[in-house]
Amino acid sequence: MKRIIPLLAAAVLAPQDAGSHPHIFVDTALKVIVSDSGQLEAVEITWAYDEFYSLLIFEDRGLDGDYDGALTAQELAKLQGFDMAWVEGFQGDTYLTRSGEALEMGAPEHLATEVADGRITTRHRRVLTEPQAADGVVIKAYDPGYYTAYTMTGGLEVSGGCQASVTPPDLDAAYTKVEELLYAMPADQAEDAYPEVGEAFADTVRLSCGA
After folding, report:
1. Which string of b and e fits 112-133 if b means at least 16 CB within 10 Å?
2. Closest CA to 193 of 145, 121, 132, 137
3. CA 98, CA 9: separation in Å to the nearest integer?
4. What is the DSSP letter of 103?
5. d(CA 108, CA 120)
6. Collapsed DSSP state (helix, strand, coil) of residue 24
């Protein structure tokens, strides 16, 4: 796992078989902040968690006692930043590259946590360690181990006069890769050592800042 997942969620979501990934589904939105000079400065990332996982978070934290899918102001205050407690080595499930080279980002800055219709939505900002030319930058949101599935359905906004295209994954190729990698390992190891196939299921966002 990556962020600190509540114990109840980990127990309920315990995999039953090797083909059970993913377990958490997240609608993702991006706001890409580019300066007027074409330098990529930061990315704001929105995660809208699925209803079942949101329910597990409520139960684990003793929230939404009336089970109406909404929180009081006091309950919502307790939830702020709940998914920002990242374990060491977690990269944030958002990856930026340019010409094949990874671009480094700083620690996440929590911006907002909201609840609507029984779903938790959070937003945070990652600032690039060093601004980079935005043209040609590729952004992908994925969990390498594919425990969490991110889908670019929440919207995409780019500033600085740049544009972005979104290329969906080749799902046939992705599932074939999973089958081949799982077939190559002993069945009793398939879950603990689930292959890192998350990138194969990721949407590809590419920035362009041409005239």
Report:
1. ebebeebbbbbbbbbebeebbe
2. 145
3. 36
4. P
5. 18
6. strand
Pairwise CA distance, residues 22 & 200, whole Å? 13
Size (the chain), residues: 211
Report residue 17 as tokens. 């078989």
Instruction: Give the amino acid at 20.
Output: S
Percentage, residues of the chain above pLDDT 70: 84
Q: Are strands 109-116 and 119-133 parallel, antiparallel or unpaired?
A: antiparallel
Query: CB-hemisphere CA count at 13 Å for 143?
Result: 19
Give kind and range of the element (H or E) at residue 101: strand 101-102
Minimum mean pLDDT range among 41-50, 102-111, 168-177 = 168-177
206, amino acid identity: R
Q: How many CB atoms lie within 10 A of CB 64?
A: 20
Reading the block at residue 34, the tokens are: 């580019």
In this predicted model, what pLDDT tens digit does every residue of 124-152 receive, in sequence order?
999 999 999 999 999 999 999 899 999 99
Q: Chain-wide mean pLDDT for the chain?
A: 87
Q: How far apart are CA 19 and CA 17, in angstroms?
A: 5
The strand order across the sheet containing 204-208 reads 101-102, 94-98, 137-141, 204-208, 163-167
